Inverse folding.
């Protein structure tokens, strides 16, 4: 905490002490308390690039803590396009002032259109120049979702905008700010909140070679699958409504690192595989990347016996 | 003449900038610029058709279900299949849950803070623990001397917010409850969807999740909680905002033409809960798919203009000189039309077949002493959204009763090597269409015309402005530095730019 803020905390403490009828000897303690409150509230700027807002909506689905608790007790969410009351030029002022001061966390949702900079703009500037400027001044950057972490669908084969991930942007621009990747389409709210709290309270969490926190991405979906015993017994579903391992219907849980089969979605309500749908690898670096890699390969489906009902 | 640029417009989905030409404090011309392009239609070409329902859901994280639905409807048509009853109803249940989620999110979290004064909570005198928590937070934020206290709720445009502090505090309380309610609505969808946002279970031929009694009971229990919130908070709060800002029944009228494709099929081949229809110049007519075209004179594309979506093209040209938006300009028989809850409610009201809808619309109008024509306005859009949300929530329990546990929710199919199909449905924000053609069993072409493509369209080839542009024209802006009037008009359409451009 800089001297300037310490002075401003002492000034406010004097006002509060006067209000509460306390002697001046209490000032340092009050200033400490205020500093703690402000320090706990890590400033966060959230920038959406080539995104669908799905990760933001998924974050709102967090139950404990809920979004209101997150905003009032953990972070100071200075800008988020879907939630901020501020509009237009005010937004750009909040962002530029915060970036100018440094000492904030940056969350980026979506990929960056490196080959066509005008394909994503905000406040009359390209998103790519804004992300580069903010990343250089941020304490740490969180790439939220598969698009930001790996490029995702906007960066898929044949894409017209030359979209790239945030790690790729960092490499191109030689940015050395600590970067954490949270793939998933969308992210699970627990992955983001767990990571944020870890960064704020304990520092950068241990990550793997792709920058993913090990606490969430250490194991394969397949190894934690509710149908794992079906796989071991070689009982394979041949139609979407059948019981059994979904491997022959295109499941790529054996290639995808994430814990959603055990954590489940929407506060433990359900998961893709539990709902009879193969894992499409939405948290994988390969998600939708190749045009000829079908999510539900028909050569497998069509070769199986037709089952009505 | 002066200019106002509102960029970014926050509390919507995506990247929208609005430029206004101002003369004597009045908007003369408005320009809506969609500022983000990914190229979904280009990326889908040559892929397996079944990829489309997963990939197109990622067009939008607020209404992925509707894209998944439009995609499987297009594929059902192209493969000549139809889902079993459990599949049809299961799809309705997933989509209905997301409608409720989206409408609650829109009113409370996207639109309400243009009307409600959240700072009133700083002087809250009651005993509600949640509001006392917010009060303590606002006070500590201001006392801490941080540069932007009470973010993300401040700073904001200065303007005329609600003055009744009790009403403001109640609205803030409901803002907080609404966070839990929209989360609950997503959970409700997830019972049959597997995951939200971005549904796992929707497939051509039905849904992969099986229908069981425990799921029906869980959905039903969550629905009842949502119905209480809709009846006790959402609908009354919209009425309170309408009473506090009656002038917004005269603001943001727009083009006055309306289009609905219809949504929520009540049987495999038959009527829908909200019917298809068109109103042009006040005259109702039946919807004809062949009348839809997309023009691109002012959009960043070099492909041909005026194409029908079934033969549509998407060739980006980021440096096109006359262009100012990535959004195309869809037109219906050459006309500018508005889509969304207001269009659905007016089309259904005009048909007069749904007595519950008619009754509810008239109840709301008489409570506010307004006529049906007054609905064509900022407040009419909020009102229509709330009316629709209540009607839908009330209808769902009948669908739950029609489910048959143990019966299939999905039918097998073969993918032909050639064929085509249109999937027409309604997203929470309005008319949504996907058009697929198959070539050698792969996607030959794929086109999406999305609600906000209609509503936030730029000028068309003839220079006619889009619906939001028309709604802004003529608006008085009291303070050019704080154009809150324009923001209120834009937000009443619930724009989704990731959808509009895709």
């Amino acid at each position: 905490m800089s001297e300037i803020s310490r002075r401003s905390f002492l000034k406010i403490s004097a006002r509060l002490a006067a209000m509460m009828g306390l002697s001046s000897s209490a000032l340092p303690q009050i200033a400490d308390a205020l500093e703690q409150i402000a320090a706990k509230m890590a400033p966060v700027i959230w920038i959406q690039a080539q995104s669908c807002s799905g990760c933001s909506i998924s974050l709102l689905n967090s139950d404990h803590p809920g979004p209101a608790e997150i905003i009032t007790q953990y972070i100071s969410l200075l800008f988020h396009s879907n939630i901020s009351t501020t509009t237009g030029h005010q937004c750009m002022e909040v962002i530029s002032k915060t970036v100018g001061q440094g000492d904030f966390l940056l969350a980026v949702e979506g990929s960056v259109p490196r080959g066509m900079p005008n394909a994503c703009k905000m406040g009359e500037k390209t998103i790519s120049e804004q992300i580069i400027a903010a990343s250089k001044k941020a304490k740490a950057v969180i790439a939220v979702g598969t698009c930001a972490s790996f490029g995702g669908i906007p960066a898929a084969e044949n894409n017209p905008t030359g979209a790239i991930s945030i790690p790729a942007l960092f490499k191109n621009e030689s940015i050395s700010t600590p970067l954490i990747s949270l793939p998933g389409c969308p992210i699970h709210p627990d992955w983001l909140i767990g990571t944020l709290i870890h960064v704020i309270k304990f520092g950068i969490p241990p990550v793997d070679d792709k920058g993913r926190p090990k606490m969430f991405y250490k194991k394969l979906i397949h190894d934690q699958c509710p149908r794992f015993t079906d796989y071991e017994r070689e009982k394979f579903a041949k139609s979407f409504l059948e019981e059994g391992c979904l491997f022959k219907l295109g499941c790529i849980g054996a290639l995808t690192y994430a814990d959603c089969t055990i954590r489940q979605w929407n506060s433990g309500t359900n998961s893709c595989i539990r709902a009879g749908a193969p894992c499409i690898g939405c948290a994988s670096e390969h998600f939708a990347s190749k045009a000829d890699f079908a999510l539900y390969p028909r050569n497998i489906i069509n070769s199986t016996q037709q089952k009505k009902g | 003449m002066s200019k106002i640029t509102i960029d970014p417009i926050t509390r919507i989905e995506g990247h929208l900038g609005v430029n206004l030409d101002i003369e004597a404090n009045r908007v003369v011309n408005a320009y809506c610029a969609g500022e983000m392009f990914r190229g979904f239609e280009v990326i889908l070409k040559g892929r397996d058709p079944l990829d489309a329902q997963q990939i197109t859901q990622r067009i939008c994280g607020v209404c992925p279900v509707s894209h998944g639905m439009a995609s499987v409807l297009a594929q059902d048509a192209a493969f000549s299949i139809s889902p079993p009853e459990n599949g049809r109803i299961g799809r309705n249940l997933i989509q209905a849950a997301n409608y409720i989620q989206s409408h609650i999110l829109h009113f409370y979290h996207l639109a309400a803070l243009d009307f409600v004064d959240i700072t009133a909570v700083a002087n809250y005198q009651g005993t509600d623990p949640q509001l006392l928590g917010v009060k303590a937070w606002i006070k500590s934020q201001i006392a801490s001397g941080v540069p932007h206290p009470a973010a993300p709720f401040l700073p904001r445009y200065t303007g005329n917010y609600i003055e009744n502090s009790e009403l403001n505090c109640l609205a803030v309380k409901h803002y907080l409850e609404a966070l839990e309610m929209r989360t609950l609505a997503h959970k409700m969808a997830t019972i049959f969807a597997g995951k939200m946002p971005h549904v796992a279970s929707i497939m051509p031929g039905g849904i992969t999740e099986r229908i069981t009694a425990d799921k029906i009971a869980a959905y039903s229990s969550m629905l009842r909680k949502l119905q209480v919130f809709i009846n006790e908070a959402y609908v009354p709060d919209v009425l309170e905002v309408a009473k506090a800002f009656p002038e917004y029944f005269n603001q943001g009228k727009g083009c006055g033409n309306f289009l609905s494709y219809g949504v929520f099929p009540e049987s495999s081949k038959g009527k829908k809960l909200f019917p298809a229809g068109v109103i042009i110049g006040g005259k109702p007519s039946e919807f004809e798919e062949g009348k839809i075209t997309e023009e691109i004179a002012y959009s960043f594309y070099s492909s041909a203009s005026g194409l029908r979506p079934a033969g549509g093209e998407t060739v980006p040209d980021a440096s096109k000189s006359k262009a100012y938006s990535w959004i195309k300009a869809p037109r219906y028989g050459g006309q500018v039309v508005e889509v969304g809850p207001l269009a659905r409610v007016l089309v259904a009201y005009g048909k007069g077949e749904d007595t519950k809808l008619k009754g509810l619309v008239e109840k709301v109008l008489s409570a506010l002493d307004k006529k049906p024509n007054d609905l064509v306005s900022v407040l009419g859009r909020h009102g229509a959204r709330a009316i629709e949300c209540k009607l839908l929530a009330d209808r769902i329990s009948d669908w739950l009763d029609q489910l048959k546990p143990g019966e299939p929710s999905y039918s097998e199919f073969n993918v032909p090597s050639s064929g085509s199909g249109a999937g027409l449905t309604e997203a929470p924000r309005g008319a949504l269409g996907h058009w697929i053609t198959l070539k050698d069993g792969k996607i030959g072409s794929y086109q999406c015309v999305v609600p906000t493509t209609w509503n936030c369209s730029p000028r068309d080839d003839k220079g006619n402005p889009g619906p939001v542009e028309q709604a802004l024209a003529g608006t008085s802006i009291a303070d050019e530095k704080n154009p809150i009037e324009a923001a209120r008009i834009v937000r009443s359409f619930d724009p989704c730019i990731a959808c509009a451009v895709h």
